[in-house]
Amino acid sequence: MQLPWRHGTPSVNLGLQGGGAHGAFTWGVLDALLEDGRLAFDGVSGTSAGAMNAVVLAQGLMSGGCEGARQALRRFWTAVAESLPFEVALPAADGQGFRLNPAMRLALQWTQHLAPGQLNPFDINPLRDILQTQVDFAALRSHSPLRVHVATTEANTGRLRLFSGDQLSLEATLASACLPSLHRSVRIDGEPHWDGGYAANPAIYPLLLDGPVRDLLLVLLAPLRHAATPESAQDIRHRSMELAFNATFLREMRLFGHLRERARAVPWWRRGPLERRLAGARFHLVNGGQELQDLGEGLQAAAGLRYFEALFELGRNHGQAWLQQHLHAVGRHGTVEPLDLFG
Prior knowledge:
By secondary structure, this protein is α/β, with parallel strands linked by helices. It has helices spanning 23-36, 49-82, 102-110, 116-119, 126-134, 137-143, 170-176, 205-209, 233-265, 273-279, 289-294, 305-326, 338-342; strands at residues 11-16, 40-47, 89-91, 98-100, 147-154, 160-164, 186-188, 191-195, 215-220, 282-287. The strands form two sheets. Strands 1, 2, 5, 6, 7, 8, 9 and 10 form an eight-stranded mixed sheet that branches. A two-stranded antiparallel sheet has the order 3-4.
């Protein structure tokens, strides 16, 4: 299915990072881009919460264009917020940002001692019900208006597995967000799968190496540089997990940055197909970074409509600012250099 984009509308691929509840920031960024309507999407690669945003975006575009996608994303995040019996993220006492509900903090401490099968013997997963209700995976496999790539990690090999095209499924999307300390492994083709963040957060190569579009817009949730070094045991655990989830992405981006520089050093008449594609790649960035951290530390496992709306508004502001500053560059030149950011 082809969307009725206007002739000459600039197009980008989207790389959507995972980050639990922080995925509501990406919702806000996408909402700003969809409302503006001057940008088309060709492909999207997502991990964990980024995978959720990717399939819901594709579903909404397929069923109702840009406005349908905005409605689908709001419907999804509202359903996630309402799936828990209490708000997990509460406003901080000083009115600045949010804090984790003490009951949820206690529950997360138990995950350090008990396996998901013990904590959740009936394998209750609200995300399964929400996705089953809101996303028609059979239709996406045959009529998706954009190329969707969902990343998972094979638990027994550590290998990245990408699900695209006719492999896209509910199970793959759930596996992409399967933190093994919180959820049971998701079995696909007999293999247990965990959160895609262990292997790619998100996977970039399918966007750079396939398809006609050379512009890549990264929507990142983790800071590229933290303001301070963690000191407490809890903060060190949070930082360690964040570093583990982003190491493969940073390495992949650094590699592409070096390869692109080498490709550009080759005279244009001697470049092969791969060198031409790498030399022509244009990178763009929206990064919630430190502002997401400032809303509250350790809230990636939180849920709550007030918290999601705050993340959404922050994402919309970033999306609108990017459009104002950089939309004119799409199709012409990149607005960030990979080696400057990741090298």
